[in-house]
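Notes from hallway chat w/ T.B., transcribed later so I don't forget. T.B. wanted the structure written out for a chain they're using in a teaching module, and asked if we could keep both sequence and structure tokens in one place. Agreed to drop them here.
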Amino acid sequence: MNAGIRMARAAVWARVATPFAVAALSAAALVAPAAASQRSGTDPYLAPAGNRGYDVENYDLRIRYDDQDRAIGRGLVTVTATATADLEDFSLDARRTLRIRSVRVDGNRVRFRHRDDKLIVEASAEQGEIFRTTVRYSGTPQPIRDSASGDFSGWLPTSFGVVTFNEPIGVSSWMPANDVFYDKSTWQVELITPKGLTGISTGELLDLSSKGGTTRSRWRMPEPIQPYTQLVAVDRFRVSDRPINGIPAVVAVAARTGTSVKQMRQRTASALRWLSARFGDFPFSTTGAVVVSGADGAMETAGRPVYSDAGYYHNSETVLHEMAHQWFGNLLTAHNASDMWLHEGFATYLELVEQAERKGWNLDDLVHASYVQEGWGFGDHRQFHQVTLADPTPAFVLNTTTYFRGQAALHALRAEVGEDAFWDAMAALVTGPLGETTSTEIVIRELEASTGRDLSSWAQQWVYSTGYQELPVAPTPQAVVSEIGVPLIEQASQWAQTPGKSLRRKLRSAATGHAPMDHLEIGAIRSRKGLTYVNVGVRTSPLYPQDYPTCLTLDRNSRELRRAWYDPQISFSSDFAANTFTTSACPD
């Protein structure tokens, strides 16, 4: 998932979303004691989502979309599973906004109970037995709101339809499922929509046709995937099924999204070339891209990522990130959500490496700039001092720890083992079959085997500790100014607009309690010939191994500075020009 989606707030759903906390969904306490152990998965971050006692092999799903209510008019899913224990009954995750109409097991109608986001099926199975559960349902799915972060997942509205952003447990908002990372399965999906709208999913497009007043699309995903990487998108799409880089592909772009089928084909092709050169064949039999007319974010849906309509959500960097997830996230998949950095840290690092290569930018500075960002929402800050990569806690599982500390850890690993060994080890991680899952401990052992190095010190510093570690290359002075400069310009602009205000006090107010601004130091301030010179630096630490003396030169009377509050810009000069930074101390 692209980092931006964690920043989004779907205000339109604020009054109707179903609240949940990833760590402690209240339903756990309400499940009948006799079967409670079977009705919660083994992932403590997601529990009580997930169900024990069986392994899903396949979902066969059909949805008739109700455009008037953005609802599921009729839903039918057949879940083929193998019992891993003797079962007296079993359960599926199904949110309360779904109306369960009937349940059959192996063709026989059975009793069921639907409560506390669980569909409890009163049918037995012996260990090793394959059984098929068919559920007829309908309903108006509501997004699931994470009470820890305020973010939404599941069934989300767009301008003309809906889209599913399912990470981490959003699938159960719109269909009964075993909604955990570790239960991968194959899929068949059929979407029936009113004419003018098209349903898009993952996998191979078997049929797309219109008859009468409806459009029907049928899809087959032959590779096993985790539930959250499945997609249902209904919108006014323009669709292309031309191959990309020789791989069967579907690219669907909704109206009024600011991009085109051609652009998304080009961005996807470029990302595929770059990634395949490093990690080998694409893991899926089909690829492509889906751009919807709303929502906020991007999502690594299997083989064919989905992007919302804001430009930064479908630009080249985001496409690279989501395509990187096809290897790191969808092929190499964390068994539990606690190991999310294996998805987000890896994809973020690859995004930055490709960006630096393509634009000729300094990779060390890009990595550092990402590393210092401790949270993208109020209350998310200073998490690096509270949690580790290996255990970010449910509150931060999709926040900056897994993304930005994760990418920095990989940059440090690259410096430690060397260029060739690093890329060989990365490629070796993604040679396994799609149906498996892994963990941080397994990945570290595999990295050690590939590199021939003892990585215990690296792992202890970067994966199992809190606080900052020193990156292998210190940031350039320009990078440091870029990291701390915008809040300084904002406060200086307020000072310029408010006669009598203390400049030192205003600038010190930028020194918030989280990185990077908690490292800010304001030195001597002098005025001369209409200009004010402010000595700025940073406190030395593993984050900033030097103090980086800098001079901020201000002209309080300039229109440029007064307007900077609305659009703060970082400008450099070597001669202390007005409203610029230098990379040296101020003149005496």
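Follow-up for T.B.: The longest strand covers residues 54-66. Might be a good example for the class.
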